[in-house]
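Tokens help. One example:
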Amino acid sequence: MKPGRKKRSAQTGFSKNPVKVAHSTPLEEYRANPAQFIADTLIDPETGKPFQLLPAEVVFLDHAFRTDANGRLIYPEQVFSAPKKSGKTGFAALFTLTMCLIFGGQYAEGYAIANDLEQAQGRVFQAIKRIVESSPELRAIARVFSDKVEFPVTGATISALASDYAGAAGANPTISTFDELWGYTSERARRLWDEMVPPPTRKIACRLTTTYAGFEGESELLEELYKRGLAQPQIGADLYAGNGLLMFWSHTPVAPWQSPEWIEQMRRQLRPNAFLRMIENRIVSTESTFVDPEWIDRCIDPNWSPIISDRALPVYVGVDASVKKDSTAIAAVCFDRSANKVRLVAHRIFQPTQAEPLNFEAIVERTVKELCGRFSVRGVYYDPYQMTSVAQRLATAGLPMREYTQTTDHLTAIGSNLYELIKGGNIVLYPDAAIKLALNRAVAKETPRGWKITKEKQSHKIDVVIAMAMAALAAVERGQNELRLVTSEWIGVHTAPRLGGFGSTPEDLAYAAAGGRLGGRGSGGSVCW
């Protein structure tokens, strides 16, 4: 604590018995320089020391609380947008406390609102609670609850609010904070946004948005706000103001910890669109190329080819089926425990036409049966939309059919897994023009839950990618379990070098004891068994 801080804080209006002095009160000084209030009073929970604001934050604060001749806030709509990891959530918490305690007057109401991706208590409210609990001068005058912080001396409250607009009806906010506005995509979020408009009954009231960029056509609230901000006069570096709106929007780092080395690391780790959105803070399309063509080439092993048959090899099969227009694809993969990689074992693509639709019983059903006769198939994963009757017959025949509906969650799971496998070089593909073309044509649509594989044009056929993605996810999840099982039960069994182990079934153990090896290989191509 700085010398004299206790004496100065008695003048902020928090104390029940303020000490009067002749010169201007700290409350007036803090209103003239809100950054000083933050430096004098608020403690960073992570360091235990006073906050040190970034230059961009100081400039923003200098404009944010300016009033007109009538004492009314000039900018009731405010946006602070910077690249990921700029400390925006912490800044929103500091801003909210400053507004409620220094500018809000008696009975100020602050609301920290959770977006569609968060629980009822969003990150800003959690940050506010931690700052209050870490700052001795605030802790002494505050009452902290699970969803509210109260300051009885002034009657000010700061509440957590879920993204449920009905619960906000009747609110009289001094400030409402919307963190990561790109994540407010639902109709209820739009209605909540409308409910939390700064009320005309308060001269000092604002709505604060802290965020990085979102998606064209999806993050509509943020996109509208961004366009409105750019239409205002630029009054400083990345700072726009006018027509009741103050917007800071930077495409470059604002914090010293966002070093060139970190930026390059993010460039390597993130998709191009994700890098543009998160690190360069640019609004992007929700769709981008699924994987870099160079990554695909890196996964293709010219010495690897389809496997004709290996009755002991544990295989996971994905089926993406269509009757008339789209192709139907079947892909079989295994998990190579020795290399800790997924390997494509075989695949087949069928292209139906309007005149000749696919005969599921004659083609798909027979092909799946053949697969189960040639490998130790641990699961056949399929979307029941076109496969219900076929799957029922195959399950009755004893095949391990596994229903995998193509919901957003499921498509995200298989897409994210396949993306990581290809990016990390952890899937081995044999040379095949159809597979390479399908992977290059696949695009990734970013959703709040992750990446979903889709295609840019209806004519593009990516069914083999979906089939391979379903099988690969099963191989990754179950392959790890098999590794633990083999490690505990295959002690003392000596085998010749081959592609991984499979499990502890009698067939597997007999195969291992016989010194089994990888089955024969075919000649590649789209039809490989």
